[in-house]
Amino acid sequence: MFNVCVMYKISLVSGLNLDITIGGAGIFFLHSNSYFLTGVMISRFNEINDTVLGFIDMKYHVQWIRGILNEHVTVNSCVLPTVEGVLYYYEGSNEILSPGTLINHHLTVIENCEVGYHKAYPNGFRFCQRTGNWLSSTEKLCFKMCPPLISDSLDIKCSHNGKYANCSNLSILDTIATLSCKPTFTAPNGQEISLELFCQSNGLWNKQLYRCNPYCGRVYVENQVLIDNGDRALVGTAPWNVGIYQLNKINYNYDMICGGSIISPQLSHFCGSLFLAKSCVI
């Protein structure tokens, strides 16, 4: 804390001369090797032990202070702007510089991106010119990324500039997601559709994911009627059939011990009993 005291003598209307002492204390906080004024406390004392204390919150006087600084202090300095997703450092330092920090002219500040933002260019920096204006390497460095696309009823394929992209991770600007219903699912309107989503600069996809309806217990792979010594049935021939397998500890294969049929989306019926029935072992 830095204290400043001032003393002077005033005359009251009553004609009595009293010595009045005015004291002031500035309240600062330290950040990035700089002190920032956040408040001022004023105290007044006189010979009759009459004391008055007052506090000034500097946040209500920011514009006035900035005007003074711009006129007398920051002629050859630059002020770090507030830019969404951007972090500032001095070259060779890991200490983050806060927006609003005064940077002396002829100094360079390195720019990087916060987590969740995509860095559009490999290198970003800004140089403080003698005029107090910034010379920046890019117009916009950091773009907010779009959230992962995850669905239990959709097949989602993503690409960026024609190359594969992983949709289950955060996606960068201009990523394209192609949606289609998974096997055994149909589109909400009953017709198979293919929809494309685009990752925008605001970090949002241009459209919402839709949900496909389950197409349970219906044949979706053509196959011949089962006969003796016939071919192995393809997956999808009888999607309502289910089975339970048990690990064979001798040959480490899985042996089928029970079969059953799906009777609802939430419940399967095995061998005339529920899933946990011991009697289903054959």
From TrEMBL:
SUPFAM superfamilies for the chain: Trypsin-like serine proteases
The name this protein goes by in its record: Sushi domain-containing protein
Q: Which InterPro entries match?
A: Peptidase_S1_PA, Peptidase_S1_PA_chymotrypsin
